[in-house]
Amino acid sequence: MSEQQQDASGRCAPLVVLAGPTAVGKGTVSAYIREHYPEVWLSVSMTTRHPRPGEIDGKHYHFVTQPKFDELVRQGEFLEHAVVHGRASYGTPRGPVLAAAQEGRLPLLEIDLQGARQVRERMPDAYFVFLAPPSWDELVRRLVGRGTESEAERETRLATARRELAAKSEFDHTIVNDDVQRAAQELVHLMQQHVCVKR
Description:
alpha/beta
């Protein structure tokens, strides 16, 4: 027998979408949740970009060629997909997300703003969380501190981040990422409140 958990408005979300500006720490918060909250199912995105140092295919991303990605788009296999920073393609495979929701787990999508907007079109009953930096200066410090992008790429990401920060009002809830553990706990608590669960 299934049991659905609803929030105060009677809404029951099939999944939670986490988005926010570049370098805000979405991946770090998600990694903490993966390690400490086994009840949360984290979607693994597909991308055409090359792996960064330490990234593992199938764990951090599914790394594929652009022709393979384009074929999956034509087949309608993505819940959302987008070209990010004018360069690489990213997408969320539809099948695993829907399966996790049906199994009653707590599905979490960590995606960019473009992807979040596509998911809203396809799943308007999802719960959308915006991860915000403590300040603009802190966001710049984190981006420069990563050391994974060229100067030109950093400028592109900063311009993108300014636009992304302006989209905060589109989301159901905002979490300030001033501490990874605290932000992760707040996100999981929101999931427990708003996601449909089956028992």
